Amino acid sequence: MDKARLGGLLICLVVVVAAAAFIWGLFYSLSTWKYAIGIPVGAGVMVVCALGFWIGWTMLSTKVELPPPAEEEEEEEVASE
Domain spans of the chain? Predict the structure, then answer.
């Protein structure tokens, strides 16, 4: 696995853990009256987490095509001369 895919996987994992920690903290540490602020803010945080996961998933699932080796290009240039 190349560095870009590994980075994408790490981004996905960090976003999932951060979202889970936020949801756990929202529902287990707030009193009832603070839900009026916590739920809209939580929705915004989940949108940001979804965008982060999407970026990580895109990095993880993008296929990278390597350029052909330089030797073949040199052979073609010599043959055309």
Answer: 3-80
